[in-house]
Each structure stands twice: as structure tokens, then as C-alpha cells.
Amino acid sequence: MTLAGDGPVTYYVKITNTGQVPLSNVIVDDPVLTAKGCPGLPLTVSLPGGVLATNDSVTVTLCTIDVTCAETPLNNTITVSATPAPVTINSCLPVDVNGVPVRATHTCSARVECQAPVTCRVTGGGVLTPGIVDQSCIPVETTIIPFIVNGLTVRQITHGGQLGAPFSHMDCGDKLGNPCIRGEWQHTRHYEGKGNPRDVIDMNFHSANPKGAYDSLMCACLGCCDPETGAFILPTVGPLIHKFALCNPDDHKVCGPQPRPSPANAIIFSGIARVTSTDDSNANVRTAEYVVFRVYIEDRSEPGGFHPKGAVEPSDIYCFQAWKTGILVQKKPNYGNVATALRTAVAQANCDFLGELESDLTGNKIGSLPSPTVTFTVGGQQVTATADIQDCGPLDRGNHQIHPSTSATCTEPAP
Fold first, then answer.
1. Residues 131-150: what's their mean pLDDT?
2. Residue 13, SS3 per DSSP
3. Cα separation of 19 and 170, whole Å?
């Protein structure tokens, strides 16, 4: 188990009778936990009918203790012992030379370590093209919604920038418009037709007149599936080097983020952005409004894109989703008043989504994308909102690189 800092740890033990006879008088003991103040050890396990039948299991909660990072790594070994139970009145049970019934014993070990939360930043960009499908445990198909706008068909999606420099404070929506998340990102929808019509979405929190603000940022180290065998490759975290632990240190070409050393291969962030849309009825007329956006990226094989020669599946994944607010862009925006309930819901959903992917060791969810639907409460009423723009899929061309966070520190301005 890995802790992000000092905190409580609950110890459990699952006992399974894999033998051919029932067991009784099951006792659990652990001197390390006893020394840490875990009460009631050794513990005689309460069993229905007094026995643990063959192939039956019982899970016992031992205790919850406070663990500090200063005392980690904390190793402990639990010993479980039991006596074979008679099957019939005349059953014979094994005894030692003193006539004492022989006890079966088994041990299992656990380890608690401390590791600073994963922080990261991302650079790069690329192109999404309709029709591209790539394999990342499950098929990842390019989705472009809406595909036709005012009679114009999307030709391709371009995007790029950097997020997390100089500051990349991890946040799940606790602080909307977090000044300690910085970056600039642009997402552009290119349409077929003369004049290269396009929609441009700007997310810039570096300029003197920012075009948006960031509400959430989270990174994770994910596993993936072998493109040849389909077998799930569990994520691994290497030893602490240069203030960060390397994600998947033995994998340079499949699960990422190598060859650029990084503690994560997935990043998700959200906030408020400005979209300038093409109006097909008059190419010179453009409207700009605020949208709540989300970007999700997986840094997989190199060079990252599906199309380039030498690309190795799975390719990098990029997903952009945006919810229109109907609020027109202002010269002096006050982002604190723009769609706060929706922004909070998206930010929390981001962390929930990435946390579930990171903790899922079966591989069933790797390759899935964030749900475009979020639910939140406004004025006591529950509201469900689906993203108006959904441009997601494997990169056709381009590359994303996830990096360790910079060493710069952020001091929030006084309110």
C-alpha cells in the first residue's frame, strides 16, 4: 500500500480453507501490529458453527492504526493457525508426540510505503482524423461531435500547447480558477470548404488578458495492453529518482511515457475557455462565448501518432469535451461567476474518472474515455449536462509528452 502522507491504515486478513477438512480454533497473530497498538491480538476468529468449511473464506478486520511516513516502509507478517475439525464423531485427527492436535499455519506479509502524489505537466499536440481506430485494451475510435455544423463537415481537429508550467498544482475542483495551474492550450475544428472555416477554442492563463482559467489537474500512471497478445500490462512505479518516481520504468515503447522520463502517462485538466465559432451564413461574422472544457491525454508509444512510419500501437489518446455556457465573452471577464456548478462537477468527475482507471488492475477500463455527461445541482434542482463538443480519439499525427512538474513554486495572491 502506498500513502501520499501520514494517515490511517486499516488492516484486513482474508482466510480461505484450501484443505480437505474443516478447520476450527482459527487464530490470527501479528507482533508488529501488536507493537503498533492493534488491540485484541492474538485474535480467535468467530466462525459460523465454530468451523471454517473446505473452500470457505472469512474476512477479518484487525484494526486501523495511524502510520507516519517517517516510519515507512512498514512491514508486517500475519500468522494464521487452525486445528483440523472432526468430520464425524469417530474421525481421527493428527496429533504430535505429546498428543496435542497438530495446528496448520500460514503467513502473509504486507508493506506500507509513502510516496508523494504524482504531479506532472504536458506538452505537444497533434491531429485527430475521422475514421481512425486504435487498440488500447479496447478499440478507441475517433469521435467528432458535432460532425456537421451549418452544413460544413469537419475535416480534421488540430490541437496543442502546454499545461502545467511553470505551475501544476494538483486540484480536483477545490479552487475554481486556480492561479497555481498555468498553461496555454488551443483546440481547433477545421471544416471542409473554401476559406478554411474553423472553430477556435483558446485556453490561455499566461497572458495579461487571460482567455480562460483552469479548475482541475490530475495525473496518473496507467497500465495498458500488449498490442500483439492483448495481455494487460500492469502499471509499475520505479524508485524515487530526481524527486520523482518513473512510471513504467521498464517499458520504453508501449505503455509510456518513456523515453522522456516521467512519473505519469495520463493527465486530465479542465476549466473555462473561450470559443470563437464560424458562422456559415457570413464568414466575416464570428461570435465568441465561454465554454467549460475538459482535456484528457494518454502518453503512450513513440512517436505517438497512428500515421507516422515506425509508430507503435497504442498511439497517444487525446480527448476534448466542452459544454457551452451561453455567456458571451467579455472584455474584463470575471471567471468566478461563470458556470461554477458545472465547472465543479466536471472537475470532480475528472479526478473520479482517472482515479478509477489508476486503481483498476483488471485492464477492463483502460482505453475508455471520460463520460461527456455530468450531473450537478443548481438552485436545489438536479441538472444533467452533456458536452456540446466531443472530439476524442487516437492521434493520427503528432505527439504528446508528459513531463515531471517544474521546480517552480506558486504563491497564491492574497484575496
1. 89
2. strand
3. 49
**Residue 332: all three cell numbers together:** 474584463
Strand partners, 290: 274
SS3 content of the chain, % helix, strand, coil (to 5): 10, 50, 45
Residue pair 265/300 in contact (Cβ under 8 Å)? The answer is yes
State the CB neighbour count (10 A cutoff) for residue 218: 26
If pLDDT is split at 50, 70 and 90, which confidence band does 277 have? confident
Domain positions in the chain are 2-114, 120-404
Q: Would you give the distance in Å from CA 6 to the centre of its chain?
A: 22
Cell of 40: 485484541
Please report which helix (H) or strand (E) contains residue 277, including its range.
strand 266-278
What's the rounded Cα separation, in Å, for the pair 360 and 368? Answer: 12
Average pLDDT across the chain, whole number: 84
Antiparallel, parallel or unpaired: β 397-404 and 148-149: unpaired
Please give the pLDDT value at position 208. 56
Cα–Cα distance measured from residue 162 to residue 204, given in angstroms and rounded to the nearest whole number: 10
Cα–Cα distance measured from residue 222 to residue 285, given in angstroms and rounded to the nearest whole number: 44
The residue among 202 and 321 whose pLDDT is bigger is: 321
pLDDT tens sequence across 198-249: 888 888 776 556 778 999 999 998 888 877 787 877 787 776 665 677 888 8
Q: Which of 128-137, 177-186, 250-259 has the lowest mean pLDDT?
A: 250-259
Distance separating alpha carbons of residues 28 and 40, to the nearest angstrom: 10
Residue 42 has pLDDT above 50, yes or no: yes
- Please compute, for residue 192, the number of CA atoms within 13 A of its CA located in the half-sphere on the CB side: 9
Nine cell digits for residue 36: 503498533
Q: What is 2-114's CATH topology?
A: Immunoglobulin-like (2.60.40)
**Distance, CA of 371 to CA of 349 (rounded, Å):** 9
What amino acid occupies position 297?
I
The more confident residue out of 322 and 288 is 322
Least Cα distance to 154 among 397, 350, 390, 409 occurs for: 390
